[in-house]
């Protein structure tokens, strides 16, 4: 069951503690046995679980037990995350106030609602403030100490602030539109100058600085526009400037700290695109430090983003043994181990590293892990296609030409629906060229065939570290023409682009 498998180690432990409150012997409690059967993945279906563990009870009772387990999981998660952030805390205070109101403890209920009000005001949770004030007005029907007129006045102020927020959103939309239609061809003008020019044309643009949430919204919008334009130089400069500005203003707190983390993630990945690997690693290390903040509040969600740029930077600077060390370090992160994304990242990148080390036996082992039906069927069609192409390349490197030609036929039949699409034209052409090369060892000496390869290289998109393909098709063909290994050719190509210095 997905809900059980989604629980991390801390959440699972907390669930067991929750069960202890109502079960003298948790280990033998039916709900715990059911939970473990899902968590340990011992059975393939509910029917198998029922037949092996609960055959002594009726089927309806089994499903009631399953529903009870789900409810217990929900309750344990609510307890564990009671004060995870201020947004959740405000929600919980509103619920607590309602409970005390049911108990006719109106004074306590009002006190809790005032506490919720303060947190909501501090964090600009306007929608939650409306709820808080509505609860106060409901409470006033039973408790005369509620300052009704004051609450109504505050509620009206919130409505005005929401209208003001709507105007700010309109300003953000205008700024976004102008930026989308701006010409970035002029290298003499940087992104901050462009923004100042645009803002000068907007009425009341100074209002964009009145709200922290609006500043984050502007930053997000501009970042996505620059990413869409693939203007990585401007994106890097803009995010660096914004990060410094936000830190100087000291606006990062527990509730918005994920914005700082996402900025660092973007900076690390942007510098990978710019082949500035040393800089990408520095931002990755800053990210790791930031993930320790607030008792690792965001650690589980973003630790993945720390290892990825470290690996990519090491790979494209020729440090294959360090890549293996990073993958081994990742293997120690219990919080993500066993997740589908983890399995894909570790196996695919291990295969590519061992391919670079000319250890095809190990490379094949990791690709075969990805081709296991239980994992492979969960992958996106595009990723399935790319993994299969890597598999075909490994067959070629092993000089297993007969099986390779058979596999290519199978590949074309299985991915026919994708290969018809324009987005996969180059993948289709790559496989066709590989098929031709596999039929004759001296094919590269054929002028017409060599020209087809050169044409393929010319048509290929610009090289980008960390793109969707595990291996860059253009560089693979360059390695054939230049009689180098793939990894040798990759390092030469990266160095020519100006990013080949060792980190």
Task: Output the keywords.
single chain, 503 residues, mainly alpha, 27 helices, 72% helix, 0% strand
- Terminal CA distance reads 43 Å
Helical proportion, percent range: over 70%
Rg over CA atoms: 29 Å
Q: Per the principal axes of the C-alpha atoms, what is the gross shape?
A: globular
DSSP strand tally: 0
Give the H and E element order.
HHHHHHHHHHHHHHHHHHHHHHHHHHH
Mean pLDDT: 87
Name the beta content range.
under 5%
Q: Indicate the low-confidence ranges by residue numbers.
A: none
Alpha-beta content class: mainly alpha
Number of helices: 27
Sheet with the most strands? none
Structure characterization notes:
By secondary structure, the protein is mostly helical. Among the domains are: 2-80; 374-503, no CATH class. 72% of the residues lie in helices and 0% in strands. It is built from 27 helices and no strands. The chain has helices spanning 2-5, 9-20, 30-39, 46-53, 59-80, 86-102, 106-122, 126-140, 148-180, 191-200, 212-228, 232-249, 257-273, 277-290, 293-296, 299-315, 320-331, 340-356, 360-370, 373-376, 381-397, 401-414, 416-419, 425-439, 447-459, 473-482, 486-496. The radius of gyration is 29 Å and the shape is globular. 27% of the residues are buried. The model has no long low-confidence stretch (mean pLDDT 87).
Describe, in short, the structure shown.
By secondary structure, the chain is mostly helical. The chain has 27 helices and no strands. The longest helix has 33 residues, at 148-180.
């Amino acid at each position: 069951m997905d809900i059980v498998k989604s629980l991390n180690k801390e959440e699972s432990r907390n669930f067991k503690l929750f069960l202890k409150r109502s079960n003298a012997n948790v280990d033998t409690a039916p709900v715990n046995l059911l939970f473990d059967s899902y968590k340990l993945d011992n059975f393939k279906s509910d029917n198998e679980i029922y037949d092996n563990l609960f055959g002594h009870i009726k089927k309806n009772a089994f499903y009631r037990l399953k529903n009870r387990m789900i409810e217990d999981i929900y309750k344990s998660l609510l307890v564990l995350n009671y004060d995870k952030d201020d947004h959740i805390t405000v929600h919980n205070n509103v619920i607590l106030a309602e409970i005390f109101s049911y108990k006719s403890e109106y004074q306590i209920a009002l006190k809790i609602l005032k506490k919720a009000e303060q947190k909501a005001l501090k964090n600009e949770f306007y929608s939650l403030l409306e709820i808080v004030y509505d609860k106060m007005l409901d409470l006033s029907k039973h408790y005369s100490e509620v300052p009704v007129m004051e609450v109504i006045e505050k509620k009206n102020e919130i409505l005005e602030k929401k209208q003001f927020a709507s105007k700010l959103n309109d300003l953000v939309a205008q700024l976004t539109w102008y930026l989308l239609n701006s010409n970035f061809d002029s290298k003499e003008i940087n992104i901050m100058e462009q923004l100042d020019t645009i803002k000068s044309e907007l009425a009341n643009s100074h209002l964009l600085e009145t709200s922290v949430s609006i500043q984050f919204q502007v930053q997000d919008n501009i970042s996505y526009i620059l990413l869409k334009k693939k203007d990585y130089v401007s994106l890097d400069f803009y995010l660096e400037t914004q990060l410094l500005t936000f830190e100087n203003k000291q606006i990062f707190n527990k509730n918005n700290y994920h914005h700082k983390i996402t900025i660092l993630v973007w900076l690390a990945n942007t510098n990978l695109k710019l082949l500035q690997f040393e800089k990408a690693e520095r931002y990755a290390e800053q990210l790791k430090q930031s993930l320790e903040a607030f008792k690792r509040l965001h650690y589980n969600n973003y630790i993945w983003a720390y290892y990825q740029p470290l690996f990519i930077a090491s790979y494209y600077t020729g440090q294959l043994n360090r890549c293996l060390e990073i993958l081994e370090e990742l293997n120690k992160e219990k919080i993500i181990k066993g997740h589908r994304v983890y399995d894909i990242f570790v196996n695919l990148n291990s295969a590519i590293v061992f391919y670079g080390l000319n250890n095809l036996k190990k490379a094949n082992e990791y690709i075969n892990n990805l081709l296991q039906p239980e994992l492979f069927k969960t992958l996106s069609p595009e990723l399935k296609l790319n993994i299969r192409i890597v598999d075909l390349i490994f067959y070629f490197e092993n000089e297993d030409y007969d099986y390779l030609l058979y596999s290519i036929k199978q590949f074309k039949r299985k991915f026919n629906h994708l290969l018809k699409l324009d987005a996969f034209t180059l993948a289709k052409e790559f496989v066709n060229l590989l098929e031709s090369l596999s039929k004759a060892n001296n094919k590269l000496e054929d002028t017409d065939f060599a020209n087809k390869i050169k044409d393929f290289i010319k048509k290929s998109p610009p090289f980008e570290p960390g793109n969707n393909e595990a291996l860059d098709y253009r560089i693979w063909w360059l390695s054939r023409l230049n009689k180098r290994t793939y990894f040798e050719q990759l390092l030469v190509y990266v160095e020519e682009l100006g990013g080949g210095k060792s980190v």
